[in-house]
Amino acid sequence: xxxxxxxxxxxxxxxxxxxxxxxxxxxxxxxxxxxxxxxxxxxxxxxxxxxxxxxxxxxxxxxxxxxxxxxxxxxxxxxxxxxxxxxxxxxxxxxxxxxxxxxxxxxxxxxxxxxxxxxxx
Length: 121
Fold this sequence. Notes:
Structural class: alpha+beta
Shape: elongated
Largest sheet: 2 strands, antiparallel
Number of helices: 2
Strand order of the largest sheet: 1-2
Distance between the termini: 120 Å
Radius of gyration: 34 Å
CATH topology of the domain at 28-68: Rubrerythrin, domain 2
CATH architecture of the domain at 28-68: Single Sheet
CATH class of the domain at 28-68: Mainly Beta
Strand content: 15-25%
């Protein structure tokens, strides 16, 4: 049986192919973002959105690097800092003199709670 099926790939009752009765498409703007490798990513936003709500940077889906709007000056990858211990953070906040003073205050409180030890002779 030779012939063609006229409704192949169409839903029954969908109307003529190519009909644009699916509603009005909202106005939108295209914003390009560029990463350090030169990859361009285009994101679409509603035309009535406030320009300040459009992000300046995104993560590039191509490379995972940060991507910005300026083609000539794309953002660079921030250097990851190694894990810091609690002591390293404390040393950033306190000088050696402050540390000695805090230690002395803590020792005085501890001695007051325990009472002074008497040495018997």
